[in-house]
Design brief:
Number of strands: 4
Structural class: alpha+beta
Order of helices and strands: EHHHHHHHEEHEH
CATH architecture of the largest domain: Up-down Bundle
Shape: elongated
Length: 310
């Protein structure tokens, strides 16, 4: 049973959101690099490098959203949903590269000297970018949760990270303006880069978890509680629960044990009802497969086939 299949409305919403993210990202990129060009500030450079990563990541995310909506085919019978995790991993990897570049440039400035100009104008530009990215990031996360899109959610969290990074840079630049201590600029950039590095690592960790079908305790708790309740009130049992998240959707399979003389028609009806309740409890796209088997002789059958044992 499939619940909440991918549809045109959801697809359109995701496409619009990712296009907005790309358009705003390009504007932010132009503004931040202009700010760096007129100031030569390492802190602003760190913010500008994040915008380059954002453009690359959003471009890949746009491709991923297109690929997800391609129907299953002979080479991908389960569809293309897992590109979501790959997209998050690529974004995390690019973020880490940006952090490494920022640290290198900052250390280079500390060693060879620091020259900063027009810092007040640069601070205004970065401040505006921080506010815009805060709004954009919140919008993307909201749309990601609304459409159960890991791609939009990951992109939104990246933009929010970019926003907090910008706010940190602004605070640092104000301190430089007040104190006149130029070395504070590359030091701030290094701190920002370490925060970016951490964010990138979390995205890669999330991507690996998805690609390796890592379990989700909260999801499993919901599934088991629903199955226990629905099979219990029908005098049935269930076992062999397995599930995996594929990005936009979740795939679930389990066995339901019926009394020996249950008609196939009645067993199928009960299984369908259980699947319907389970799908509703998840509130997300779900593909559910329930295997029907008789309770009589069940243990003996599984002993002969250990692959399907509890």
């Amino acid at each position: 049973m499939d619940k909440y299949p991918l549809n045109d409305k959801t697809h359109t919403t995701q496409v619009i959101a990712i296009r907005i993210s790309l358009a705003v990202g390009i504007i932010m990129l132009a503004g931040k690099w202009y700010a760096y060009a007129i100031t030569n500030s390492a802190a602003i450079l760190s913010d500008a490098a994040e915008s380059v990563v954002h453009i690359l990541a959003v471009s890949f995310a746009a491709f991923s959203i297109w690929l997800i909506y391609k129907p299953p085919d002979i080479s991908h019978p389960y569809g293309h949903d897992k590109i979501s995790f790959f997209s998050a991993g690529v974004e995390g990897f690019l973020i880490i590269l940006a952090a490494a570049f920022i640290i290198f440039e900052s250390i280079n400035k500390l060693i060879h000297g620091i020259e900063i100009t027009n810092l007040d104008v640069g601070t205004y530009i970065v401040s505006a970018a921080a506010v815009i990215n805060l709004v954009l990031g919140g919008y993307l996360v909201w749309q990601g949760k609304k459409t159960t899109s890991l791609i939009l959610t990951a992109n939104g969290k990246h933009v929010l990270t970019d926003s907090w990074t910008s706010f940190g840079v602004v605070i640092g630049l104000i301190l430089v303006l007040w104190t006149g201590w130029l070395s504070l600029d590359p030091i701030i950039a290094i701190v920002v880069a370490l925060n970016i590095f951490w964010a990138g690592g979390k995205l890669i960790r999330q991507a690996i978890a998805g690609l390796m079908d890592e379990g989700n305790p909260e999801v499993e708790k919901t599934i088991r509680a629903t199955l226990d309740a629905e099979t219990g009130k029908r005098g049935l049992q269930h076992h062999e629960l397995r599930y995996r998240e594929s990005g936009n959707a979740i795939w679930i399979e389990y066995h339901v044990l019926f009394p020996e003389n249950t008609l196939l028609r009645d067993a199928h009806q009960a299984a369908t009802e259980i699947e319907t309740v389970l799908s509703s409890s998840l509130q997300r796209p779900a593909h559910i497969i329930s295997h029907l088997e008789p309770s009589a002789g069940h243990n003996e059958l599984h002993e002969k086939n250990p692959r399907h044992s509890d």
